[in-house]
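Support request from a user on the community tier.

User writes: "When I paste my structure tokens into the form, the page sometimes reloads and wipes my input. The last time it worked, I copied everything first. Here is what I submitted, just in case something in the input itself triggers the reload:"
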């Protein structure tokens, strides 16, 4: 029964922060010192850093964070034969319980355990990682109690698990005993990054997890950047989901001609690829050159959805591996290869910036990053606005309501307040018409992006069973 009165329904524990829009979410795969393998780990940079500790993913996300990103979905991969560190403890001569590192890697060999009997008939476990005490489980009476205590401890569960072998409690140890056998495995290959999908079990690894992770926009690899097979796999993922942008680059030692060849080989019919040239030295990784993709990812997240990533200074850049002249940069841009180059020194002393390629006036595709992001933001809202009509009777009233739903999205896109005025686009039209197939409707909409020379036309087909979206190649008025 509801009793009349005043109720406080505010969230407890702090100010509510609305979630980031999907265009600010980044999917990254690669190697790391720690972290559960082939599982999507979600969080801010601080969260990711605490879970992976170091490695390619850490370095990539840190540089992205320095340039404006702070919402990551990461997948840790390791090579074949990676193993977890482990140690079994005995009662007299028989193993009774096993302590195992939470995930694979040589890092687990730095874990150690000390067992004491502080209260008669119980065992207290102290756990160290390196020289640091990471936690203790006090006075457990059974091995089952230790298993449960570790599984339910938010800190210790990130480091260790326990497996009961018998009911006997183990003997006490005089000092800390190290786990052993942890291994990082063989060198990671592009197959490890691309991953696999088992249709029988549903298990996915590597980049294949991006297919079932719905809420990211930018995708990149932190390991083996510039690998042609990995680049192609990321484009395929974005093309098949009709959402998101694959951030791509070349191998670090590539010549100018090899860079152009690599970019031209990457076919993205719907503009789902953004290829960047130019490695730079980062103050986050002194003495070596890094790809521009992490910085670009940060810039895309920092900017509003419709703003070009061009002419943005890279926060952590110290020097370029190769500085191209204007004619060389122009040659890249005409091939839709984005470049990291030198600009005029800004007030903060930064001189290295992004130079973004541009659409030719006759190009009907979503090539520029901000156009893709804006299109995806509108398309996602449009799908949410009209998906209710699936399986509904095709009547004049249904068409009227669909037109109204589409006009609400149109109003939002044209009037959303931004730092540059109202609206994330310049113009937009919407129209509902009957399709040749029975009980099927076309929900067409065209959008003119800010700075674009032509409309992008989308057709959302509402049928009795589904909603499909397609970019058309000709104007419909």
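"...and here is what came back when it finally went through:"
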């Amino acid at each position: 029964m509801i009793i009349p009165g005043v109720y406080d329904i505010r969230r407890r524990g702090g100010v509510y922060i609305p979630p980031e829009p999907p265009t600010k979410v980044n999917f990254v795969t690669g190697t790391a010192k720690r972290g559960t393998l082939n599982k999507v780990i979600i969080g801010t940079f601080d969260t990711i850093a605490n879970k992976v500790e170091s490695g390619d993913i850490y370095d990539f996300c840190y540089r992205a964070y320095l340039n404006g990103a702070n919402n990551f979905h990461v997948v840790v991969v390791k090579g074949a034969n990676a193993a977890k560190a482990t140690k079994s403890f005995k009662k007299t001569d028989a193993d009774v319980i096993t302590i195992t590192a939470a995930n694979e890697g040589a890092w687990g060999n730095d874990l150690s355990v000390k067992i004491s009997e502080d209260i008669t008939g119980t065992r207290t476990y102290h756990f160290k990682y390196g020289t640091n005490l990471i936690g203790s489980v006090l006075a457990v009476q059974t091995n089952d109690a230790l298993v449960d205590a570790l599984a339910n401890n938010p800190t210790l569960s990130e480091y260790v698990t326990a497996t009961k072998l018998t009911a006997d409690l183990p003997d006490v140890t005089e000092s800390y005993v190290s786990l052993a056998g942890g291994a990082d495995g063989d060198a990671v290959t592009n197959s490890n990054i691309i991953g696999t999908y088992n249709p029988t079990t549903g298990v996915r690894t590597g980049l294949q997890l991006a297919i079932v992770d719905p809420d990211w926009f930018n995708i990149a690899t932190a390991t083996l950047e510039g690998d042609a097979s990995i680049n192609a796999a990321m484009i395929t993922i974005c093309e098949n989901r009709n959402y998101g942008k694959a951030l791509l680059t070349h191998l670090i030692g590539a010549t100018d001609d090899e860079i152009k060849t690599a970019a031209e080989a990457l076919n993205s019919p719907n503009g789902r690829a953004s290829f960047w040239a130019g490695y730079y030295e980062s103050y986050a990784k002194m003495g070596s050159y890094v790809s521009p993709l992490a910085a670009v990812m940060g810039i895309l997240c920092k900017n509003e959805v419709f703003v070009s990533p061009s002419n943005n200074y890279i926060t952590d850049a110290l020097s370029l591996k190769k500085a191209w002249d204007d004619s060389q940069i122009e040659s890249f841009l005409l091939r839709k290869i984005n470049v990291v180059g030198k600009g005029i020194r800004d007030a903060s002393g930064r001189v290295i910036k992004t130079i973004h390629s541009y659409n030719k006036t006759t190009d009907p595709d979503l090539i520029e990053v901000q156009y893709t992001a804006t299109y995806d933001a509108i398309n996602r809202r449009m799908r949410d606005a009209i998906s209710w009509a699936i399986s509904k009777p095709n009547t004049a009233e249904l068409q009227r309501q669909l037109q109204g739903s589409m006009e609400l999205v149109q109003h939002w896109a044209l009037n959303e307040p931004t730092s540059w005025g109202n609206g994330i686009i310049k113009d937009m039209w919407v129209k509902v018409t009957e399709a040749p197939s029975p009980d099927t409707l076309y929900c067409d909409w065209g959008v003119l992006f800010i700075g674009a020379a032509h409309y992008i036309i989308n057709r959302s087909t509402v049928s009795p069973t589904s909603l499909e979206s397609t970019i058309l190649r000709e104007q419909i008025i």
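Agent notes: The reload is a front-end session timeout and is unrelated to the input. The longest helix spans residues 396-415. The mean pLDDT is 89. Escalated to web team.
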